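Q: I have two molecules that I believe assemble together. Could you output structure tokens for the complex as a whole instead of separate predictions?
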Amino acid sequence: MIVQLILFSISLAMVYFVLSAGFSLIFGLMDVLNYAHASFVMWGAYFTYFAYQRTGSFILGLLIGIAVGVAVGTAIEVFLIRNIRGDQTNQLLLTFGLIYIMNELVKIFFGTSTIFPNRPALFQKSIPMGDLVFPVYRLILIIMGVVVYILLMLLINKTRLGMTIRAGTENPKMVRACGINIRNIFTMSFGIGIFLAALGGGLACFFLGLYPDLANDQLFNILVIVIIGGVGSIQGTFVASILIGLTQYFVGYYFPVLSMAASMILMVIILIIKPTGLFKAGASNE
Amino acid sequence: MNNILTMESVHTYINQFHILEGIDLSVERNTAAVILGRNGAGKTTTLETIMGLRPASKGTIIFDGTDITKMADYQIPKLGIGFVPENRDIFTALTVEENLKLACRDMSTFNNNVENVFRLFPDLKKYYKKGAGVLSGGQSQMLSIARALINENKLILIDEPSKGLAPLIIQEIVQTIKEIKKSCSIILVEQNFEMASAIGDYYYIMENGKVVLRCDKNQLENDDEIKTKYLGIS
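A: Yes, here they are, computed for all two components at once.
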């Protein structure tokens, strides 16, 4: 039982990680707190599911969900966020405004009722584990989280783009003085962040469910995870996702009433011990 | 045209503050111009305006025949200008190697130029694979200068390289800048009179956002009035 609970917690944690990593990346590099991040998760989930329903192919649906999210996200960065960089009050107003617009658009396009999505055949299978079974879909979610983490770490630590992102996190002005167009790097990073939100939302749509408050619920989880992990740190986000996944699952199993409060209590305890979160922002060479 | 850089009536604002109030300055090819002046005179802003980091609101800046006044900041280094900022601004989240690679605009020249960097700064070879955060103040300054040398620049702007360094390290940096001077032009901002005097071919003295005097080495070293009036040296 414990093994199954742990595996279920890890699958939840990996979904949280993919949803939160983009938020952390965008804040770490661009100093932009994109509160609308969870709305891109919701768009990823809805567009993926409806494209899947129309085309019959989940992969194609996922690609469409991601494409819609990245296209809208990149346009928002170029036309709106770029103009208010460094102005956190306006960023707060803008991204909160976007939450309302994006969430209302979902209601207009897809309705206000909760949708119980039908899973593709593969996602309905299970793997026998001794006396228990483990759903293939949850295994796929775990694989998604691990693969995203490895690819993100490789991108940040082993590529020129990653090198520029790390340098830009620390001192964007000096990156410009080295002859690098940091605006393009910001746009690319924002696009990667939104890609992760839409990927997570799309692949986990059967797990998260499709309902009008999806973005608000996930924004809460994302903020708690990113604060615990250390805002801007990918490793921190990964570790914090696992902590929150385990906490929510175990507390939810044994003390269901405390499930949501447990995340907040954990955050408060960690912040008392380490006020900046578990990891340092932008640091990737430790 | 003998000037690598010419600034004419350049004005720069930082927020509502009028920092540069009509700078006129020129740098001849393969020479070292030194900008002197008290704190707040506008020396650092002059360098940042040339780099496009603080764009000029008025006036013209011509570099090697190209008007760079309104050019995007990231385009300006590509013309052949290197920048060594006041606080070194090395990237501590990167290794020494990564700092140099990030600054390198043409990777086909990297291996050759990095050897030149190691010849000037052997310490950087020792710490090449290490995080730049572990470097001492002097080594950080070396890395900051090395970042400008990793490209074949025509002009290098160096802002107060002696700041916070021990006299022995300053001597080392002076020798290196003299070596750099053989292959490109330099604008050096410096408060350390000995360093300025050892490197400069001619001097601009700034006060309240304006160039108030251009003089040669002889004048600077022997005219007590210049020293007391503008530099506070008695």
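A: One point stands out. The first strand of chain A starts at residue 126 and ends at 129.
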